[in-house]
Amino acid sequence: MIDLYYWTTPNGHKVSIFLEEAGLDYRVIPVHIGKGEQFEPEFLKIAPNNRIPAIVDQAPADAGEPIALFESGAILEYLADKSGLFLPRETRARFQVLQWLYWQMGGVGPMAGQNHHFVRYAPEPIPYAIERYVKETARLYGVLDRQLAEHEYVAGDYSIADMAIYPWATLWQAQQQKIENFPHMAAWLERIAARPAVQRAYALVAQVNEDPKALLTAEARRLLFGQ
After folding, report:
1. pLDDT (tens digit, 9 = 90+) per residue, 116-138?
2. Which residues, listed in sequence order, are joined to residue 68 by a DSSP beta bridge?
3. C-alpha distances out from residue 77 to 9, 15, 44, 49, 62, Å
4. Domain range holding 78?
5. Ranges for the GST C-terminal domain (predicted)?
């Protein structure tokens, strides 16, 4: 059994997608980041950086004590190794996947995250910041689009790289992008969205988060961004 500490954000979706795709037993433990639940002492024991997602594997492969993990990229890699799915063992294929996973962690996530912040959450518009992050998001999606021109999925076969990138890329409209500029990415988004496991993962949103706009309140912004 995997305990998934989750909220309905792109990083949260990464792990729920994997768990659904792999068919692993898990239970969702909501962490409402708009109410400050990520700062609760019990959660900080698992995720000291006060960010979701986090997991606790109650039955690790070594049969030892439960393993707690934070950081979505590390969680995906751990679960892939645990299950033997969506991350090849062979060196060349494995690092083809991992380089795109880390590309998401180091590029798409931070840049699109800043895009979201300045476009949607900042208390006042800052044109320079908006332009900076909208353009950088477009540059990264150009890289992705070129890769997908020659591959059905990001690293060849469907993998944790796709699961990491998809929840961010599917928000292209909110990121002020023009999907017609990225036709291969657009087709890939449709392929991912059609997967039953992805649909089940996103169905958690309605179960967990009754008010998707809750993060837009002044109190939520104070908690999330120190405003």
Report:
1. 999 999 989 999 999 999 999 99
2. 56
3. 19, 10, 21, 19, 16
4. 2-85+198-225
5. 90-215
On whether both 177 and 113 belong to a single domain, the answer is yes
How far is it, in rounded angstroms, from Cα 14 to Cα 161?
10
Closest to 217 (Cα-Cα) out of 100, 118, 121? 121
Same domain, 160 and 214: no
108-141 core/surface letters (b: 16 or more CB in 10 A; e: else): bbebbbbbbbbbeebeeeeeeebeebbebbbebb
111 and 190 belong to one structural domain? yes
- Contact call for residues 107 and 140 (beta carbons, < 8 A): yes
199 Cβ contact partners less than 8 Å away, ≥ 6 residues apart: 193
**pLDDT tens track for 15-33:** 999 999 999 999 999 999 9
Nearest CA among 163, 224, 145 for reference residue 11 = 163
Number of structural domains (the chain) is 2
Same domain, 80 and 151: no
pTM reported for the whole predicted model? 0.94
